[in-house]
Amino acid sequence: MDLESVKSEIDRVVISEEDLQRRLQELADQVTKDFQGRDLLMIGVLKGAAIAMADLARMIGRHVEMDWMAVSSYGAGTKSSGVVRILKDLDQDVTGREILIVEDILDTGLTLSWLKANLESRGAKSVEILTVLRKPEATKVDITAKYIGFDIPNEFVVGYGLDFNERYRNLPFIAGKILIKLIDRETGNTSYELVKQLRGNFSAFMWQSLAVLFGSNLKSE
User: What pTM, to 2 d.p., does this model score?
Assistant: First the structure.
């Protein structure tokens, strides 16, 4: 999937494919150096980290083990509840393991903070965090990522694992300002607006009433 296929749906490219891959290689080189002689277990946070995790693992110059978790801190509303649910747990014991959490984006930090504490409570020897993107302005808790790809403003982005209604994850770059088409059900008139944040911009009623470029089944989650 390339820029040409979505050029009518996005406003701009925030981080190019070339810059993403260059920076990820730099992070992989640093991880290789830092974990030399150590038993590394990489834990990817589904679904967003899947692409970065695969790329990173291939770039690391040593054997690594991989496992996956899926967690959610969002309930029926549009804002983070701060209460985390495990949707898919790890397949292996982490007692005594040196862990690197791989995440697509660090925004509020609520989920990552909980996940780090959870892994430490299971007896992990060490827990570090690698995130492709970080939004410093959005952080609500004290959480430190040792490996950071790029700092970005507190705005909505998609691509390289990040989605909007499960679309755009497979873009090889980071894109900003997704255009949505609003359709007046009575007159049929259309207008376009920009999605500026992943959650919280629209009420649940508005989410259910929107018809977007790729369909009319957008739901508030």
Answer: 0.79
